Structure formats: C-alpha cells, structure tokens
Amino acid sequence: MPFIFMFPPSLLRNSPLYVLQKNYTILKEEDIQERQFEDITKISTVLSIPREAACILLWRYNWSVNNVHEEWFADEENVRRAVGILETPAVKALNFREVSCGICFEH
C-alpha cells in the first residue's frame, strides 16, 4: 500500500504543487462589441441617461454594470460630479430647424 501525505490546504496554496485552475473564454471582437452595446443599453435605460454618459460611467467603473448601479444609487450627485455628467445641460442646444442660415446662424 502506497504512503500518502496529507497536507492542510493552507500549506498547499503556497506550494508549487498547488494548481489553481482558471477558466477563460476567448471572445471575438464582435462578441466584445455586442456585450458593450448591451451594457451601455442597460445603464442608459435604467439610469435614464444618454448612451454617451453610460459609456463614461462604464469606463470609469471598469465596465461593471453592477458597480455603476451600486455607486449611482448610493450617491448619484457625487458620481455625476466625479465623471463630469451634468444633470441639466450647461448650454441650451439649438433646434436646427429654427436656423435658416448655416453660416451666420440667423433665424
């Protein structure tokens, strides 16, 4: 009968014999874009913000939808200030139908 050594798991973790298995999925560029589009849509819809603002938030929180939601609902004002998303636009956008001259922008 072979002799088997029993080591506690804490000792094995620091040993070169201990192998930590990690599973990875290789994504194609199209898959990444699709996931990003879905995440942007989720954030934009749930928070009622423009898609561009959703992109900024996702970038800031390492593309984690959960982290964006947690931070936003914990302190929306602070998150807005941290990433530069204003609640109301600083400048009123012109309605281009009102502008008759594209050079001088007269009505």
From TrEMBL:
- Highest taxon of source: Eukaryota
Give every E3 ubiquitin-protein ligase ARIH1-like UBA-like domain span.
35-73
**Which lineage is the organism of this entry classified under, starting from the top rank?**
Eukaryota, Viridiplantae, Streptophyta, Embryophyta, Tracheophyta
Family matches, as InterPro entries: ARIH1-like_UBL
Task: Give the source species.
Answer: Salvia divinorum
Per UniProt, which keywords does this protein have? Acyltransferase, Transferase
Cross-referenced Pfam families, in alphabetical order?
UBA_ARI1 (PF21235)
- The enzyme's main class, written as a single word, is transferase
Give one GO term, molecular function aspect.
ubiquitin protein ligase activity
> What are its E.C. numbers?
2.3.2.31
The name this protein carries in UniProt is: RBR-type E3 ubiquitin transferase
